[in-house]
Amino acid sequence: MDALKDRDPAHIGAYTLLARLGAGGMGKVYLARSPGGRLVAIKVIRDEITDHPEALARFRREVETVRAVRSAYTANLIDASLGAAPYWLATEYVSGPTLSKAVGERGALPADSARRLFAALAEALASVHGYGVTHRDLKPQNVILSPQGPLLIDFGIARGAADTALTQTGLTPGTPGFTAPEVLVSNQVGAAADVFALGATLAYAATGRPPFGSGPTHAVSYRAVHEDIDVAGVEPELAGLIRECVAKDPAERPGPDAVIARCAVSSALAEDPFYGQLSSAVEAVPQDLQAAVAAGLVPQGHGAPTPPVYPPTAGPGYVPTAVPGYVPTLAPSVPTAVPERRGSRRTRWVVALAVALVVGTASAVALRTLDDGQGGSEAQDGGESSSTSPSASAAPHKAPEYIVDKGISRDYWKLSDDPDDAAYGIGECKQMGTADPPAELQYSADDVDDPASPTVTERAKISFRIKYAELKNGKPDPYYVSVGVKPPHEIDSETGKPYPVMMESKNIGYTSTPVDIYKYGKDGGYIELTYPDDFRSHFSNGTSSSAIPVANDPGDWTAVFYHVNGSPTDYESIGCTGFRVGSS
Length: 584
What we know:
By secondary structure, the chain is an alpha+beta fold. The protein has three domains: 11-93 and 285-334, Phosphorylase Kinase, domain 1; 99-280, Transferase(Phosphotransferase) domain 1 (Transferase(Phosphotransferase), domain 1); 341-581, no CATH class. It has a seven-stranded antiparallel sheet. A six-stranded mixed sheet has the order 12-17-19-25-13-14. Strands 18, 20, 23, 24, 28 and 29 form a six-stranded mixed sheet that branches.
């Protein structure tokens, strides 16, 4: 629990904010008090993604899911505002640490306590599945150890059990180390994937170690697909049940009911002495604003001195769910007509690695000329600022002017088969490179003239940044990035069009001049490139050629992000997105 910042609001809807509970990929979470004195947890979607249709659809789906699942194992929905920014939901506040925090501070659970937790979490999953919902992100951070037993939180990517569509471009749902092999390999999400996550979560609880080790995301995911889970030192019978839950074949995993029976517990988890110590190890929680101010969680005089106005005039888009005699009607999770959905900007954002930090300000940098290999620019809102942090490792101080097409690139992007996602131009990348990207690398691709269009007609805008440039995490500084834009087919250099017998494009694409992403990402600035204007092909013989018009090769185009180590041939792919070009 952290103190409110000056930039935090004093009230959200009818609720008075008392403290910060955390932050993550979708937004911030606050502790708040209702007018009647009830404590709630309010999740507010981040401002910079409120105009991203897929993010709003995901948030609305979370609200609908939490409202639908009225379980003893979930925090129930109290309130929500979905009609206009700021978008938020309020759930009952649950006292207790997360399983991740408890194990991190106290170590692994004894075998008997772990077995009782196993049964309780399996019962929680069975309850959620009974509502036709798969959680899709069960992990120690999403389990709260309340005095009455564990509760599942964060249904941000939960969906109906029959719905397996992805929610973000190029990413599978879930968390590395807890995501099932079938999800990582073929995006097949179902109840069995939740059981895999259950087994991985219990392995962590019983060992105090990451279930498939630590390290780069791709390495952890590889182990989850191909290697055994780490249950060294776990009581044999409990270890055997964990191994069954994380079987590579989903058909071989037991269901939650079978897990409960196999645990054969004779007493409730709440009665377990070790669990009682964990669930009671919580910070003192202020019950009202006066107590929060006294505890230093709310600055003196923070916000307006007058109390919030209660419904029905609590602000635009407010949808009360707890007012006596009021029957709520929440906004639909996803608008049904494509024309309505096109009212918002259709940027398809990809986050390479989520970091739970406070959102910063954003600015845009439009590259037009590049000086000294670092890039001149027309900057806005401080985009010219350069990083002053010391170098994390030996790195070049000057980027090459270009990168050379040195061979085969198997990165490619494909428009989603899901009609709803395709209506936004959302797709996914295949065969991505194995290099570990920097924390919070974000990128997107849109039509320059109509960003809301699901297709590109003449020019594409490629935007990218490292959101928190100060978090280098061992990466070299400066960190140069070049973007390669690939048409779907091999191009005949004489005609600028695909060969008569079309072949899949396997080169690195038309590339941009490398730029130090830390320099322009220091203040959250976006680097923006325009295809074809800012791209050329460069060859080992010193020749180059202009990028072709997108209309020359309709289909799915790929934008690959390359980390450039210092020479025109020393680079590796770190990310991938793309866009659809329609036929005329």
